Amino acid sequence: MFKIQQVSLCKAIHFLSDGFLLRGTLHLPADACPPVVIGSHGLLSDSESPKQLELATRCNALGLAYFRFDHRGCGRSQGYFPEATSLKARASDLVHAVRMIRSRRDTGSRFGLFGSSMGGATCLAVAGDVGAESLVIYAAPLRSHTVNHPPTGIIPFDFDISAKARGLNNILIIHGDADEIVPCSDAEEIFNSADEPKRIVRQKQGDHPMSRKSHQQTFIRDAGRWFKATLLP
User: Fold this and answer.
1) Stated pTM of the model
2) Residue 32 pLDDT more than 70?
3) Domain 9-231 is classified in which CATH homologous superfamily?
4) What is the pLDDT at residue 151?
5) Where are the domains of the chain?
6) What φ, ψ does residue 215 adopt, rounded to 5°?
């Protein structure tokens, strides 16, 4: 698994999204008013996922802030998961997270988004609308019907965000070529639909949970470099 390290300063934060109280953690570097990366976790995950924690550490080391939060029905946030969960609901959560972060005085105006799996789809769904200046996605599905073994009991688990991916730029796409849940062809389609600057990283024999340590290490390295290059002067 990922090696978890300490970050500069953590602040517990809560905010409202459509009446749900959502909770998160803001990781701040020593730099004043830094750009922020906002993370959206996977469908069955939460803000304590190793990807989020390690990326927060890397961003802080590079002079970037990182905000991770629990979507409604997950982790410490309000809501009953089977009833509260949908792509539309998660997109709304992320929009409210962006608005809250941009209203703060301890962070700068520039921000990027990171999303893993369903979190990646959530980022794609809102990136253009909220004006994200940088985007990193991992194993993001474009359509619900191409997801293998979709979870049951979630209403509605039905989406197609292919139109939202068109024309996005400053985007880094990472996907395992042996992903058994979300086909790597989704990453190819996202890449072909996006504008420059863009980059795609195909993890050789990479699975959906990113089990290989070498893939975890290169993911953190590449994501950190991308956010630094696109968000810092």
Assistant:
1) 0.94
2) yes
3) Alpha/Beta hydrolase fold, catalytic domain (3.40.50.1820)
4) 65
5) 9-231
6) -70, -40
